[in-house]
Amino acid sequence: MIGVLWWVVVRALNPLERLVHQIGARSATNLEAIDTAIVPVEAKVLVNAINDLFHKLQLSIERYNRFTADAAHELRTPLAGSVVQIHAALECSDESERKHSLNQALKGLSKLNRLVEQLLVFSRMEPDVAMLEFAFLDLKKLSVEVVSEYAPGYLEKGVALELDAPNPVKLKGNWELLATALRNLLDNAVRVTPAGGVIKVSLFADDDFVSLVVIDAGPGIADHNKALVFGRFHRLIGTTGQGSGLGLSIVHSAVRLHGGAVTLKDGEEGRGLQVVIKIPIRKSIPL
């Protein structure tokens, strides 16, 4: 009798042993789904969960690889340019040319520093690693603080910055992320707005949504490009300047983590760009 029971137990465990062997023989890089054909019915729920985890890990690794490859490419250009300019300055005997080369190197390093800062912000907002604290905040207070930071620099460039936020706007969110989103919008706006132009920031809310709108006086973005600019490192053909290509992507990620959405529209009277952030008040919590 005992021998029969032992035979039954061994026979029942054979599929599990094969499963253990299949998993144990895998390399660390093999994230293919486990073959469920040899899996006992009782273990299929567990194996399906493991396969789902493998799939998520594969997507995360692919996203990481794309991000690091793109980041390396973007970092290489300003770094290489700065090295060339520094070498030119060291070998140059003319003081004015040396100063010009050093100024160009400084511009390249400033762009590199900005890009590194943006990369660090972006990495903290990856959905698989985002560990963010959300608390009730006043978006009007945040907007006033950020706009006040930028106003002096705008005046130096001959650009006016207006804020229309008549009432406090309370929601549950992450102060740092929302402030970073607004800073990126203002960075983009001043980059494309000529001297004498006006950049308008408005904030309002109803029972369901908070809306934050930034309107610049630049050339705007063609309709067929509006969806593309949210991609990482995307720059429109013909654009120049110190942009990292991450600004709107960071804005999109920050707003998405608040359950909101970002839309791009033409500015007033068809000129410039209007960026509209809408966050649901009752859902302004981490997803």
From TrEMBL:
Q: Name one GO cellular component term.
A: plasma membrane
Its membrane topology is listed as: Multi-pass membrane protein
- Family matches, as Gene3D superfamilies: 1.10.287.130, Histidine kinase-like ATPase, C-terminal domain (3.30.565.10)
Designated name of the protein: histidine kinase
Species of origin: endosymbiont of Escarpia spicata
Give EC number(s), comma-separated. 2.7.13.3
The record ties this protein, via InterPro entries, to: HATPase_C_sf (IPR036890), HATPase_dom (IPR003594), His_kinase_dom (IPR005467), HisK_dim/P_dom (IPR003661), HisK_dim/P_sf (IPR036097), Sig_transdc_His_kin-like_C (IPR004358), TCS_sensor_his_kinase (IPR050428)
Organism lineage string: Bacteria, Pseudomonadati, Pseudomonadota, Gammaproteobacteria, sulfur-oxidizing symbionts
Q: Entry's SMART domains?
A: HATPase_c, HisKA
Keywords assigned by UniProt, alphabetized:
ATP-binding, Kinase, Membrane, Nucleotide-binding, Phosphoprotein, Transferase, Transmembrane, Transmembrane helix, Two-component regulatory system
Gene Ontology MF annotations: ATP binding; phosphorelay sensor kinase activity
Keyword Transmembrane helix listed: yes
Catalytic activity from the UniProt record: ATP + protein L-histidine = ADP + protein N-phospho-L-histidine
